[in-house]
Amino acid sequence: MADRPRPSISRRRLLQASALGVPGAWVLSSCARAQPLGAPAPAASTAGGSAAASLPPLTEIPIASPQNPVKWPINPGNEPIASGLEPEMNATLRVYNYPDYVYKRVLKDFQKEYADYNVKVELSTFNDLPEALTKIRSGSVPFDVGFLTYNYMGKLVYGDLIRPLNHDYIPNINDVWEEFQNPFYDQGWQYTVPYTIYTTGIGWRHDLIPEDISARSNPYDVFWDAKYAGAIAVLDDDREVIAMTILRNGGTDVNSADPAVLGQTRDSMLEMLSVSRPRVTITGYTDIPEGTMSLAQCWSGDMITGQYYLPEGVDPALLRYWSPPTGQGVVGNDFLCVLKGGENPVMAHHFLNYMLKSEVSIKNLSFVGYQPPLRSLTPESMVADGYLPANLAGAIVKPEWFQVGYPLLELPVAVEAEYQAIWQQFKSGA
Fold first, then answer.
1. Are residues 211 and 320 in the same domain?
2. Do 89 and 187 share a domain, yes or no?
3. Which candidate, 2, 399, 332, 396, places its Cα nearest to that of 179?
C-alpha cells in the first residue's frame, strides 16, 4: 500500500486473537515513533550496513516507474546468501509490519511447520513507513522480515538495509502473477516478493446512500456533492486524496509535478472542503459498515474486510465498492523483503516462501481482506468461495490493471514538498 497508516487493532480482531489462544512465543509490540526520516542513526549502530553512510543524495536515487523500471544494484558485501543452507536453529524471527496487517494464525502455523527448528515469531509494528525506515536504520532491533512498499525501494537498497534474495529458497513465486515476477520497482525481483494488491476507490452502504454512485459519469464527483455534506470522508493520506482529485479533474498523472495541475488540484480540494465538509480518516472500513458514515474514499481490501464489521442482522449485500472498472484508477501493492540487519536470513527466506503458498495466502486474505496476486486465486473463486459477496466484486483486483492503472510513485524531494504543502492546507481546514 502506498505509504498509508493502518488503524490500531480493532476490537473484533483483538477478540479473534484471544480466541486463538496466542502462545507465549508471541511478542506483539507497537514500536514508539522514532526520529524524523532524515535524522542520523545513533552513532553506535552498525546494523544498518556499511553502505548506509554512503547513501547518495535523494535527488540521485532512481525513481522506478512502469515507464522507467529499475534493476537495483547489489552492494559489495551484501550478496545473496548461499544455496542449500539449513534454516537457523532456535531462531527468533523478527517480523516488522503495520498493525493488523497479517493473520496471526498464519504466523502461528509457520512456527508449527518449522517446529523442528524451534522457531518463534516476534511481531513488531509501525504506524507509517517513515517511522519504519528510521527504526530499521537505527539497528536497535534486528528485524528479519519487513512488510513494506515500493515508494521506499531506493532508500532501502542504497541505505544497505535490505538483503538481495536467493531465489532457490522461494519456489512458490511460480504461483504469483507474472507482473510481480519482474516488477517495475524491482526488476528480476532481486529484493522483494509481493504481499497484497489493492485499488483505491469509493465505498458506501446502499441503504444509507440509495444512489448508485457507480452509475455517475464521474463517480469522484460525489465528494463535491453538497447533498452528502457531513456524511462522507476521504482518506487520511495526502497521495491518495491528491491522486483522486487529479483523476476527478480529468488528469491521469497521479504523480504530477506540473505546477498548473497541482494548483488546480489544491483549489479543487479546498472547494471540496467548503461544499461537502468530508472527514479525514482511515476508518471507513468500520465506520461504513457500522453506519456511522455513509460513504468514504477507501482501499479495496478495507471494504472486503468491512463485511465483518456490519451490525448483527445487517445484510452484507448493502455494501458497495467502486473503482474504475477499466482499471484506470489508483492501483498498488505491498511487498515482503529480508532485512539486512536480521540475524536469521535463511529462515527469513523460508518465511517469504511460506507466505507465497496458495493456501497460506488465501487464509491470510480471509482475515486482512487484502488480495494476494496469485494465479490460483481468480475473481470467480473469490466470490464462489465466500471471500466476498457478489456486490463487492468490484473490489477484486485484476492482473491487467497493473498495465493500465496508476501507481503512486516515489516523488522527487521538491515535488514531495509541494504535495505536503497542499495537504497541510487541506487538513488545516478539515
1. yes
2. yes
3. 399
Q: Is the pLDDT of residue 360 over 60?
A: yes
Do 363 and 106 form a contact (C-beta atoms < 8 A)? yes
**pTM to 2 decimal places:** 0.84
Between 177 and 20, name the one with better pLDDT: 177
CB atoms within 10 A of CB 63: 16
Reference 341, options 7, 51, 34, 37; nearest CA is 51
Q: What whole-number distance in Å separates Cα of residue 237 and Cα of residue 232?
A: 15
Cell digits of residue 345: 536470513
Q: Is residue 391 part of a domain?
A: no
Residue-range definition of the domain harbouring residue 66: 11-197+333-384
Cβ 348 vs Cβ 231: under 8 Å:
no
Q: Are residues 62 and 31 in the same domain?
A: yes
Q: How big, in percent rounded to 5, are the helix, strand and coil portions of the chain?
A: 40, 15, 45
- Ordered DSSP codes for 77-142: T-PPPPTTPPPPTT-EEEEEE-TT-S-HHHHHHHHHHTGGGT-EEEEEE-SSHHHHHHHHHHTSS-
Only one residue has cell 496471526, namely: 104
Predicted confidence (pLDDT) per residue in 34-66, tens digit:
222 233 333 333 344 444 445 556 557 889 999
Residue 56 exposure: Cα atoms within 13 Å on the Cβ side: 7
